[in-house]
Amino acid sequence: MKLLSAITLAVAPLTTLALAAPKPMKVTVFGGTGYVGSAVCERLVKRGHTVTAVSRRGVNPKPDSKELSEVNWVAGDATNAKTVDSLIKDSDAAVHAIGLLFDVDSGLSNLNIIVSGSGSVPGETSTYDAITRSTAFNVINSIEKKQTSLMNVMNKDKFPFCFVSAAEAGWPDVPFGKTIDEKLAPAWLNKYLVAKRAVEQRLKDSNDKKGVIRSAIYRPSLIWDWTKFDVLPVIPVFNLASAIGIPFVDKTVRVETLADAIVAGIEGDDISGVQRFGEMEDISKRVR
Length: 288
Description:
The chain has about 290 residues and is α/β, with parallel strands linked by helices. Helix content is about 45%, strand content about 15%. The protein has 10 helices and 9 strands.
């Protein structure tokens, strides 16, 4: 009995540590009204963080949500560097979930009403370069300025930043992926991926040269829940293709899993680099 008691006492601190609440942070979510962004905001609030959500509209997309009612909703243009600077200045961490599947140059922009989880429609200047690359670069630049300023000269902690990319951004790294990318993918998808890859490369360069950002890059394929009727029919196709080992097709990711994985990435000092569906499924369990 004494031995059992000793073991129990020894294990207790570890258990307490594992179950301890996360350190509250001030997190800014760019694209907070969107399909992924709003799910991230909900979970961040549940975990005890103070959340500011930035979007063109700056309006709570789910007024009945208890968690989202606690979010600070800000109408702002993330293509404006000064706007981003002012938001990052007071933040401990950030999430970039701004994106659109069809930009104004794709010829398919009206389809965003159907495929966008938030039902948003791109404006006249909403190109992949502006919406994805430019906004993300502004966030990265702002974080670097904050972390290398005199105010933070003694701060050795890296700034947590989560970027939502796409599984297809990794095509050049998998068998046959480069062929799909260069010869079979439609022009709009190529432009979409160019913007995503530019951000990924910018984060890599920042890590190599400055080392002040702990970036986690999420590469989901199709993101879904049971309300996404536009993608539900093809979910089994993607999942089967991934299961049988087709290298350029990734298993689909539920929006809840992605959002949980992003929150885990904000909180977990050990999480950085590219996160594919397997990593997302794994780390999402930390915050459930």
